[in-house]
What we know:
Layout: E1 3-7, E2 10-12, E3 18-25, E4 33-38, E5 44-50, E6 56-58, E7 66-71, E8 76-81, E9 90-96, E10 108-109, E11 113-117
Parallel strand pairs: 2-11
Antiparallel strand pairs: 1-3, 3-8, 4-5, 4-9, 5-6, 7-8, 9-10, 9-11
Amino acid sequence: HVQLVESGGGEVQTGGSLRLSCVISGYTLPMNMGWFRRLPGQEREGVAAIAGDGRTNYAEFVKGRFIISKDDAKKTLYLQMHSLKPEDTAMYYCAAVGRCGTMTDFDYWGQGTQVTVS
């Protein structure tokens, strides 16, 4: 039974930083993992992904601001977010077992953690 549990969301001022974490259980790492978000009234979109071998992929709108990383020993995925903007306000989800290059077809999802930038 695969479970993904996100944490680290909250409210931050424009220009601030947050680090999201996602603990994965019930699956053997390494594997492709990613972060997604859903802005109010919009469809979910890919933010960043990391392959089992550590290769990363970022959406254009977060390049240079967000960093995805993982600690296989701790079974934890991270998203370090810097220079946050109000338009980054969204529910952020972690996902596992999918296509890193296209950020699609992920099989497992967390419940999400809210990020609000004011």
